[in-house]
Design a protein that fits this description.
InterPro entries: Cyt_P450, Cyt_P450_B, Cyt_P450_CS, Cyt_P450_sf. The chain is of the alpha+beta class and 408 residues long. The chain contains 19 helices and eleven strands.
Length: 408
């Protein structure tokens, strides 16, 4: 551990997993560029909004984890290269080339054409648990909704959806058990199975193309070599995982925020036209990706008078920036009518979320349906009893979200 680094064990506690925002506020006020040490690697965390935007667009902070130093091994482990060598972990011009190949698939007009199908999926999911007057919203709604939608876009057979949910949930819940060595083994096995499955799916699409994203990527790969076979599989994984993971966690976080703020819940029920702006405020208030994917300092850089040495891992704490009082009045208050201030929940700069239109649509339709169709919706346990993802998880979300409602 680097000298003077704050041990992760002092920061990532059970209390932190429940409510990280007091810790973020202390970091932002006292050490806005904070060195945090862990057994695997040290990293510098940037917490203020202005510094966050600067870092997210700083060319000296590289997203290419696969160059000299093999940083991906420190961060993701030995099985990561086959799935993570994609546009998320690359810089221009490689990032620009890879992003351009899939950007049309997520164009706002094409996503809007999916709206009737998303409505249909949402209603089917709610119909399945509505008669019971209760639901575990993560497994019965928040997780399957975005997975079903992204799988249809990618061209994944419907019979395989549950299997993919199982593998991706192993990765998402990493660290939730009491035996870290078992978690690591399970994650590596899930990564391996995902890689084999996606490689087989790519081969099948090559032989039997359809009107889907994977078929289009295979065509680009075969037609002019703009995509290597490894990039093809890794890009498919990124679209699958990113296309459902963050939306699932956001839906869970958003419902907890609303059910914990009855005045705002009542406001949104009475004014469904606020859904669009409500989604933005809910994302600012408690986003699913607390820290942006890691960057590597390619040279010595300085933020807030703190020297970050070349080769250091840098994390931009999005959820801390989104609670910066210099940019948001009373930032720890959920205010669905908030005016002014723009969050960085979807990122910033060239790595701005590619699936933003899809995520917004799924959130608006999903949250709207739950509020409309589930009268008397309430948490089935106290907020502090909710089973959350482990404190050191790269995601902020829930393992389970039990709720109750009236049916008659």
């Amino acid at each position: 551990m680097t000298e003077h680094a704050v041990p992760a064990s002092e920061l990532y506690t059970h209390e932190f997993a429940t409510d990280p925002y007091p810790a973020y506020a202390r970091m932002r006020d006292t050490t806005p560029v904070c060195l945090v040490g862990s057994p695997r690697f040290d990293s510098y965390l940037i917490t203020g909004m202005d510094d966050a935007k600067a870092a997210l667009t700083d060319p000296r902070l590289s997203k290419d984890l696969y160059g000299p130093g093999e940083h991906y091994l420190r961060i993701f482990g030995p099985n990561s290269a086959s799935l993570n060598k994609n546009m998320l972990n690359s810089d221009p011009p490689e990032h620009s080339r890879l992003r351009r190949l899939v950007s049309q698939a997520f164009a706002a007009r094409r996503i809007e054409a999916l709206r009737p199908r998303v409505v249909e999926i949402v209603d089917e999911l709610v119909d399945a648990f509505f008669p019971h007057g209760r639901s575990e919203l993560m497994s019965e709604f928040a997780i399957p909704l975005p997975m079903m939608v992204i799988c249809e876009l990618l061209g994944v057979p419907e019979n395989d959806h549950k299997q993919l949910i199982g593998w991706t949930e192993v990765i998402r819940k990493s660290g939730a058990s009491r035996r870290p060595e078992d978690d690591r083994a399970a994650v590596q096995q899930a990564q391996l199975r995902l890689h084999h499955y996606l490689a087989d799916l790519v081969r099948d699409k090559r032989a039997h193309p359809g009107d889907d994203i994977i078929s289009a990527l295979v065509d680009a790969c075969d037609r002019d070599g703009t995509l290597s076979e490894q990039e093809l599989v890794a890009t498919t994984f990124l679209l699958l995982f990113a296309g459902h993971q963050t939306t699932a966690d956001f839906l869970g976080n958003a419902m907890v925020a609303l059910l914990s703020n009855p005045d705002q819940l009542a406001l949104l029920r009475a004014n469904p036209e606020l859904l669009s702006s409500a989604v933005e405020e809910l994302l600012r208030f408690d986003g699913p990706l607390p820290v942006a994917s890691p960057r590597i300092a390619t040279e010595d850089v300085e933020y807030q008078g703190v020297r970050i040495p070349r080769g250091s891992i840098v994390g931009v704490v999005i959820n801390a920036a989104n609670h910066d009082p210099a940019h948001f009045a009373d930032p720890d208050k959920l205010d669905l009518c908030r005016q002014g201030g723009s969050h960085v929940g979807f990122g910033y700069g060239v790595h701005y979320c590619l699936g933003v239109s899809l995520a917004r649509m799924e959130a608006q339709i999903g949250i709207g349906a739950l509020l409309r169709r589930l009268p008397g919706l309430r948490l089935a346990v106290a907020v502090d009893e909710l089973h959350r993802l482990p404190p050191a998880s790269p995601f902020r979300g829930l393992v389970e979200l039990p709720v109750q409602f009236t049916t008659g």
